[in-house]
Each structure stands twice: as structure tokens, then as C-alpha cells.
Known about the structure:
Blueprint: E1 16-19, E2 22-27, E3 32-38, H1 43-59, H2 66-77, H3 89-96, H4 107-117, H5 122-141, H6 167-178, H7 189-202, H8 206-210, E4 217-218, E5 223-226, E6 239-242, H9 245-255, H10 276-289, H11 300-312, H12 317-324, H13 329-337
Antiparallel strand pairs: 1-2, 2-3, 4-5, 5-6
Helix pairs in contact: 2-3, 6-7, 6-10, 7-9, 7-11, 12-13
Amino acid sequence: MNARRRQSPDGLPSRVYVKHGSYYWFKPGTNRWVKLCRVSDGETTMLERLSCEKRKAESSTGSGNIPALVDQYVDIHRHKHKEKAWPHYAEYVKASFRDVDVDQVDPAYVVEFLTTNWDGKLHMQRVMRAFLSGFFAWCIIKRHMSVNPCREVKLKKPRARDVYIPDGHFIAIRNALAKEKGGRDVRSGEMMQCFVDLCYLTMQRSTDVRNLQWMHVDREAKVIHFQPSKTEDSTGEAVDWPITPEIDAVLERARTFGKVKGKHVIHSLSGKPYGATAVRSAWDRACERAGLREVVYTVKDIRAKALTDAERAGYTMEQLRVAAAHSDVKTTEIYLKSRLTPTSVVRMNMPKAG
């Protein structure tokens, strides 16, 4: 929505308007509203914030056309990307290509951008190459350039993570979620334990466990309806997970946690859902309290442990594929293969004389 012209002077700086009790700045050339502060914070705070935003805008505007084009691209495609970090990738591009026109970019520019900013960080290099490739593809459609330079950029594939959490370490981390080093209870510890328990018992992605709502817990059918966010717009794979007595006990603990209730199973004391950063921080602190900081276990390793434990318990790959909501068995096999060390059945005897 564009900013409308003022009908009468109101004493506010150019492009600054009051909406819903807050000051907003209509950022030039971006078609974006930038919230400055609440009206109750006062005009001094508003002016300081406005000055800061203008400095940021000036620093990101160079002699090239890439910054403005990136802003347009993000505005148009933002709704297609559920990942919250996606719009922020644009800031890296704008900072590095501020003095470059899009038709000047060649593969060497892209490689320099990736290696300068994320040397040795293969995953992030692939993420940013994907962002750039999408941006350049859009620029081609808009006739700003004719060739996508990312097509010639080859990157190493990150090594598959092969970490497995032993039972002893898993229990130690889980216990540390609820207790500080001095023995004092962690306020959100019980809910964090519920989160970890559901991640393990259902084998679902941590994102889907965080986003699980009570409406998906079907007591009549005695199942939890999981529609994994990762496959929602691709294969559409889903799974109904039976509510076992163990899972039922976890759900009951989550239901009775805190005085404020929300629509999410995993919720804070205020009844709101946890973000990825909150659960990751709680997990990292628990690892440190458990004396396992150097091992570097992640929340995602819980799912790997669950699937690996299930395979060792005798479940078939097809059963695990269904449980994990994978589209094919190969995905499940890749997921487990790096975490299982095979045991040789070959037995040798020393040679004997004559």
C-alpha cells in the first residue's frame, strides 16, 4: 500500500505517518512501511529511530542497481517463503553488490561473494547460492540480464551429519532441561522436556512438534495428525501417529503446564508457541549443564536418534519411511546409514606352520 498525501499539515517529517498508535516511515524506493516506535514513546524517540533508518538506507544504496532490484524481488516473492530468515538474505546481497549492476554479475562475482562471507560454511553457501539463483532468474524474466551466473557455480556437498546421541547423554540432557546447576528448577523446564519427549516418541521434525496444535490431537481416533511443513508444498506426505500411553502422558503434562493456555501443545508460560531460537537456546544450555558442550548435539539429532533406535529395535525401512513422512525409502536409508556403524562378521585365524 502506498503512502497517501497529507490533507493537512501535521508537523511530522516527510514520509512519516501515524498508524495504529505507532509512527511509521514509508521507505523511499521500497514500497515498505518501517515501524519507528509507539506514539507514546514520544517524538524524540521517533526522530532518533528515523535518523537511524535513514542512515541504514543510505549505507545500503550504492551506485549499482542490485539493491533496488533485490528489494523488489523480496517484496514480490516474500509470501512464497515460509522461512523467516529468507527476506534477511537480501541484506547480505545488497551489502556486497551495492555498487554492481545486475548485468555485470558473472560466476566469479558469485564465488567471491560466497567464499568471502561464508568460507568453509558449505551449508550457508548453498543457501545463498539458491537465493541468488532465484533472484537472477527473476531478473532474466524482467529483462535485466540474459544468463543466470549461478548455473556455473559448483559447490561441495556438505558432509552428512553422523552424530548419534547415546542413551546416557540423552537422559542427562533431558534432566538438565529442568534443573539449573545449583538444583533450582528451570521455569520452562517441564515444557522443554515435553518438547524433547514428543520429538523422540513421534520421530517428527522439531518444527512440526513446536507448531503442533491441540486441534491436531484427535482423541476420538486416538491419533495425532501430522502434516510436515517441509513436505506440505511438495510431496504432501503426512502421517497419523497413534497416541500411545507414553505420548498421552506427555500430552497431559503439556496440557497442565502454566496458568495461561494457548492453541499450541508446546507453549510458554504466557501460552504462546516457542520459536526455533528459544528451544535451541534451552537445549544448548541443557547440554552445557550436562557437561556435554564439547560434543555439539543439536535438536535435530533427537529425530536421528529416534529413527536409529527404531531401526535397531527391528522396524523395517518401509515402516520407518511412513513414520518419518518421507516420500521414499531412499531418504530414510540415507538418514540412518551414516549413524549406524556396521559390524563385520568376518573372523580370521592366524596361519599355522607346516
